Amino acid sequence: MQLKVAPVTRDECSPDEWQARVDLAAAHRLAYMHGFSEGIFNHLTLMVPGRSDRYYQIPFGMHWSEVQASSFMEVGFDGKVKRGSGDVERSAYAIHMPMHRAKPKHCAAVFHTHMPFASALTRLEDPRIKEIGQTEVIMMGKIAYDDSYDGPAFDPAEGERLAKILGDKTVLFMANHGVTTVGTSVAEAYDRLYYIERVAQVQLYAMWTGQRLKQLPEAIVAKTRVPSGSEMSAGMPKYDPPPAVRHFEALKRILDRKEPDYKD
C-alpha cells in the first residue's frame, strides 16, 4: 500500500528552508544506512528556518529509507500540520516539540533513536560512559542522564521534563529507552548521534571481554575532555568549517553517489 502524502515542492520554500529539508532528509537516509533506525518509529526533527513556532517531521508511517526533502510536514507547536500532509506521530510531538520550544537554538535539531548499542547501555543499572578511551572522554562532557522511565511519551510534559534534564548538554541517555542528541544544525546533531553510538559499541565490546577496563589517568582525562557546549577541547586546532560539518558533508557525498533522490 502506497503512503499517500502531498509533497512540498522546492518552489514553495525559501533557499534556507529547502536546504534544511535536504539536510534532514540526508540524516534520515544515513541513519537507516548506519543501522540507527527502528522500523517507522523514532524521530529526527528540525526547527523550520526563520520560524519560532514549528518544526519539520516526517508523516507517520514513512520509512527512513524513503524520506526525501519534499516529504516533511511543518508541525506547529500546537500540534497541527501547517504545511504538507500526513499524521503526526504523538510521541514525536510530545518529546520534540517541548525541546524545540524551550531551547530553539540549542535544540534546533532534535534526534531521538533506539539505536542498539547506546540503547543497550540505557538498560544497565549503570549506563554511564567510562573514561577508557579518547572518543569516550571527548563525548563525556556533553552527556546528560535521565535515570527514570515513566512509560511511553504521549504528553508534552515529558518533553519539558527531558529538556530540563538535558540542560546545556547535547546528548541525553534515557533510562530503559534510547538516546537523544541535539544541535544547532542537522550536522551537529547527526555527528553526535554517530559518535555516541560508536562510543557505546566500543564500550560494550570492551565489557564483553570480561577483563577489567583500563581507566585513563585523571590528568589525561582533563586534557582530553571537551566541555559542555564546545566542539573541541582546549589546545585542539580550530577548523572552519568545524569537524561536524565536514563529517556530515562527507556522508552526504556518499548519498549523492548512492541515493541522490533524497534531495527531491
Number of domains: 1
Task: Using the CA coordinates, give the radius of gyration.
Answer: 18 Å
What would the principal axes of the Cα set say about the shape? globular
Q: According to CATH, what is the topology?
A: L-fuculose-1-phosphate Aldolase
Strand order of the largest sheet: 4-3-2-1-5-8-7-6
In terms of per-residue confidence, which ranges show pLDDT below 50 for 5 or more consecutive residues? Answer: none
CATH architecture: 3-Layer(aba) Sandwich
Please bin the fraction of helical residues. Answer: 25-40%
Strand content: 5-15%
**Mean pLDDT, rounded to whole units?**
94
Distance between the termini: 21 Å
The main pleated sheet reads as: 8 strands, mixed
Account of the protein in words:
This protein is an alpha+beta fold and 264 residues long. It has a single domain (10-251), classed as L-fuculose-1-phosphate Aldolase. It has 8 helices and 8 strands; from the N terminus they run αββββαβααβαββααα. The chain has helices at 15-33, 90-102, 116-122, 134-140, 156-166, 186-208, 218-224, 243-258, and strands spanning 43-47, 54-57, 73-76, 81-83, 109-113, 143-146, 171-174, 178-183. The protein is globular, with a radius of gyration of 18 Å.
Question: What are the key terms here?
Answer:
alpha+beta, L-fuculose-1-phosphate Aldolase, 264 residues, 8-stranded mixed sheet, 13% strand, 8 strands, 8 helices
